[in-house]
UniProtKB/TrEMBL annotation:
This is Luciferase-like domain-containing protein. Belongs to the NtaA/SnaA/DszA monooxygenase family. Transmembrane segments: none annotated. It comes from the Bacteria. Keywords: Flavoprotein, FMN, Monooxygenase, Oxidoreductase.
Length: 463
């Protein structure tokens, strides 16, 4: 029997996130991204459909690799303009009770000390429904606007990330002991100062001597998401991530990545199934297969060839404007998302992609596949994906805002529930408790859990 299927909504605080050109469709709402009602409406739709959460991507930069110019990104609204992902979360939390919020921020562009406070604040305001997607960033444009002459090398960025996480674990897990917060109005004592410790961190990249200036939030550490599928990215994820996102174009590619991730989790001494793996996917559905196919053809007519190659060039670090439409895609080592081209070139020996095919593929639904059909057809295919690839769920990219998610909630969710493979109610508690049915904090064998006691002991030795 197929295991339970989970859904996340893949979003971004921008226009036509994964489907460049579709913002022109008369029914699309994504140009309203700057209005709070856009996000509160979406949150209510997703909670009605019992989605695990909304996963909000982000880039601090612009896609200017294609033609070595920002022209197509700007004219086609290809993930620009893009607003801050964190500021929309409290509004969505206020109109929901269970929906989780996975926010993307880069370790390359913000010091861990103020970031720790921002996430703790969100975790408080959402009553423990926040997750953090850890990224190291891949756009040179973002680095340059922060005064860096160039982006760090791919693997070096993960070395920085290792220490960045160490600082955060010390702040979130170790600085305030359990029981440090008293809130004793009678005695006039809010906190027991003997149970609040400076972290005394001195490393290669960061020096953070003081305490975490937030009291512990419901989860302390947010649920940790990670999307690196390169060898170095998988190593980092196997040590830190609780949920992992992948974006292969086929089942063959997905199965290969999932097997590698599960093996690395074993090597780190973690249960390979203690981590949820979501794969990128889009759904076009309607009452019948024919209506869904007609809808998909209409969507394809709005897709943008240049917009798609703007995205793919930015993701891969390869300027696809230098090739002809019929040229075959080859693997090129870059400093961007190294797993991107590998999934096209090496994962499926039976498929050779041309530039034109990649552009068409990415113009509707981004890098992931699109499943088209009635509820029965789509549900069958989702179950095949689960059985054949061993993923746990799907990171669903919208094609039309918010119609894609309305259709999924109306057609797909009830069909999956009838088959007994989709939740019919949320678990109680924090996001971590809802996802894993365990406690609100990191499990004891997680890398971050070791810092709960370690800070106290280190402080005692230094005193």
């Amino acid at each position: 029997m197929t295991k339970q299927i989970s859904f996340n909504a893949f979003e971004m605080n921008c226009i036509a996130h994964q489907s460049p050109g579709l913002w022109r469709h008369p029914s699309d709402r994504s140009t309203e991204y700057k209005d709070i009602e856009y996000w509160t409406d979406l949150a209510k739709i997703l909670e009605k459909g019992l989605f695990d959460g909304i996963f909000i991507a982000d880039v601090l930069g612009i896609y200017d690799v294609y033609h070595q110019s920002a022209e197509h990104a700007l004219t086609g609204a290809v993930q620009v303009p893009v607003n801050d992902p964190l500021q929309i979360v409290p509004a969505m939390a206020a109109v929901t009770q269970h929906l989780g919020f996975g926010v993307t921020t880069s370790i390359s562009f913000e010091h861990p000390y103020p970031f720790a406070r921002r996430i703790s604040t969100l975790d408080h305001l959402t009553k423990g429904r926040v997750g953090w997607n850890i990224v190291t960033s891949y756009l040179e444009s973002g680095s340059k606007n922060l005064g860096l002459s160039a982006q760090l090398n791919h693997d070096d960025r993960y070395d920085v990330a290792d220490e960045y996480l160490e600082v955060l674990y010390k702040l979130w897990e170790g600085s305030w002991e359990e029981g440090a917060v008293l809130r004793d109005k009678q005695a006039g004592q809010f906190a027991d100062h003997t149970k609040v410790h400076p972290i005394l961190h001195e490393g290669k990249y960061f020096k953070v001597p003081g305490i975490h200036i937030c009291e512990p939030s419901p989860q302390r550490t947010p649920v940790l998401y990670q999307a690196g599928a390169s060898s170095r990215g998988q190593k980092f994820a196997s040590q830190n991530a609780e949920c992992i996102f992948i974006a292969p174009p086929s089942k063959i590619a997905a199965k290969k990545i999932v097997q590698s991730i599960r093996q690395k989790l074993r090597e780190e001494g973690r249960d390979p199934y203690a981590v949820k793996i979501y794969t990128l996917l889009s759904i076009v559905t309607d009452e019948t297969d024919q209506k869904a196919q007609d809808k998909f053809k209409e969507y394809q007519s709005y897709g943008s060839y240049d917009g798609a190659l703007t995205l793919v060039s930015g993701w891969s670090g390869v300027d696809f404007s230098q090739y002809q439409a019929k040229d075959k895609v080859e693997y090129i080592e870059t400093n961007a998302i190294q797993s991107m081209l590998d999934a096209y070139v090496n994962a499926d020996p039976n498929r050779v992609w041309t530039i034109e095919e990649i552009a068409q593929w990415n113009s509707v639904g981004g890098n992931g596949p699109v499943i088209v059909g009635s509820a029965q057809t789509v549900a069958d295919e989702l179950q095949h994906w689960i059985e054949e690839t061993d993923v746990d769920g799907f990171n669903l990219a919208y094609i039309l805002a918010h119609q894609t998610f309305i259709d999924v909630v109306e057609y797909i969710v009830p069909e999956l529930q009838r088959r007994g493979v989709y939740q019919t109610e949320y678990r109680t508690g924090t996001l971590r408790e809802k996802l894993f049915g365990q406690g609100a904090y990191l499990v004891e064998n997680h890398r971050g859990a070791q810092f709960r006691k370690g800070i106290k002991d280190k402080f005692a030795q230094a005193s």
